[in-house]
């Protein structure tokens, strides 16, 4: 069924020899209203950058200069319906909350070139640290000076190019970012309207008055710091240099086999690709931890659920903010080691089903009272089915789209094969200390058999 893991890229280049040719702020094509925009309690805890790279082959009808002109123009047009993207993030000291200052200060647009052709920079699926050269960084700017959106277009010697996009996670979740990409692509055409008109009313996810927490929220952790003073999720105990990282590939055959194993038990679970893959990873991760083989230890896995369609009334599908909440599954390591796979899949499925309209509202209200972060042993962050490679630009679809990856012991990434949604396989990126990685790898093979 193919190779299960890859430890290092085949021909990855550590320095893409990127030269920055131009960088400037770009502004909305029309005057926009100066205002402050409310941010929900989900948005509040996501103040960190999300960076993606989208690779395109060369196109005879669209030379690089034309691509740059069209993308720059498209971004300026989008800063009207997405007026907050031209603004800045600020802390309201009276409320102790982050909000968008829609001040038309501009987004950033850069043009660069690499000395390599696209087919020489290595396996695009494998997270190459050098890909960071394809995205702008604003580490030297203060929080209130940083653009909320930055686009860098980098040419390769072959005529292909990369579009690197950095946005603050406060602006988008994966689903709303996909819509942003569809709108960016639509505006790069000469005569197309917006693909989807974004819904920017984040008050739709405001806490109730008074807040009413009606469920225990084991997936959330109270913070002692005032909101806005924490730059991102708490980092676990291993600095990047102490972690190995590998990609484990599950083919469509592997996933079908896991589904059959789940069906073997008398289970009420929704047997989906995500649920069986998440369960398999949960077992491997929990049992690979160096905890002195304490099988009584409780392991908690977190994974995101889109709440747009679950609320009453439902959120508009075009909601432009963050509309995902973490749900969880909990079990003793003994059960993860000895219990039937079907029961574990059922636990993961129950976590998804737990996210009813009332549960989601309770979690949002919990954030109003306690200002906390999602909290568990680790989080599954899935880019598997977001479909970034399905977006059609004038010059075609991306060859591949991927997040920039940072080593995090507490986050395991799922992302698609090079064939995107046309492939049923999934790549699993894991970063662990060496001894734990050895255990994880052995379990990954053993429990797949």
Automatic annotation (TrEMBL):
It comes from the Eukaryota. Pfam families: Transferase (PF02458). InterPro entries: CAT-like_dom_sf (IPR023213), Plant_Fungal_Acyltransferase (IPR050317). Belongs to the plant acyltransferase family. This is Omega-hydroxypalmitate O-feruloyl transferase. The lineage of its organism: Eukaryota, Viridiplantae, Streptophyta, Embryophyta, Tracheophyta.
